[in-house]
Amino acid sequence: MFDFFFEQNTKISGWKEYPFSKTAGVVFGNPLKPYFCRMNSGTPIKTNDGSHTLFNDSVGEHYHSVFGAVQESEHIFIRAGLEGKQTFPEVLQVLEIGFGTGLNALLTLKWAEDNHQPVQYIGIEAFPLTETTLKQLNYAEMLHIEPLLFLKMHQSITQQQITSHFSLQVLHEKLQDFLPEKNRFHVVLFDAFSPDSQPEMWTKEGFIKLHDALISGGILVTYSCKGSVKRALKAAGFSLEKLPGPPGKREFLRATAL
Ligand SMILES: C[S@@+](CC[C@H](N)C(=O)[O-])C[C@H]1O[C@@H](n2cnc3c(N)ncnc32)[C@H](O)[C@@H]1O
Questions:
Q1: Number of the ligand 1 atom closest to the C-alpha atom of 174
Q2: Using an 8 Å Cβ cutoff, are 108 and 120 in contact?
Q3: What number does CATH give the domain 70-257?
Q4: pLDDT of 55-97, one tens digit each?
């Protein structure tokens, strides 16, 4: 088990869900600076490796591969993403687009602790999940991580040291509004809904912004190999590799910022 950074008496229930609709508003901890946004909810579904995923009704897609959510995230985002770098900096700077359930972040936390590699992680999420939905997901249990730690991760709207090697900030905003620091990140985990459902997430302009946020030689990994995605990434200044995918997916993309 890891060293946790809970302050004594930290209240995990630091947010309020407004019960007026399925996708409701939320107010986070600081009453002087309330944050409001639309929230998503759902009922967990078991994928083939026993880990949960969710189905988003408005987009008509699952959050993960139904062949195995943990298996897919480990294969694409951990093995080809975090471990895709030959040398590791003192602090690995990771950016995730589409934070969702927080599964990629939780796997990164575990990886950071197992490898004693400090990681600073920023997640971008336009429509965070309700606490009720998060509490039903089985990731913490499957990965032998304290469930309260998983909930704390979702409350990290300012940079929080979650474990000794992992710090996290989740920004509740759209990729389109996000203004990242230039030349900061070593790895981008690009996990939006598919280009068929959300083409506005996969544009050349969006990828230029992510290219500029990466250091030279930094990498972006994503599960999609669609022609339009490859063209947009190339036009944004990336070189591309196609890698063999996890079960249920023939190949996926790793892009290097030139
Ligand atoms: C495929 S799911 C993410 C899966 C996630 N990485 C996980 O492990 O649960 C895509 C995510 O992108 C979020 N999203 C949708 N539109 C967005 C936007 N314009 N900017 C940022 N995030 C967005 C969705 O709410 C959803 O959580």
A1: 20
A2: no
A3: 3.40.50.150
A4: 999 899 999 999 999 999 999 999 999 999 778 999 999 999 9
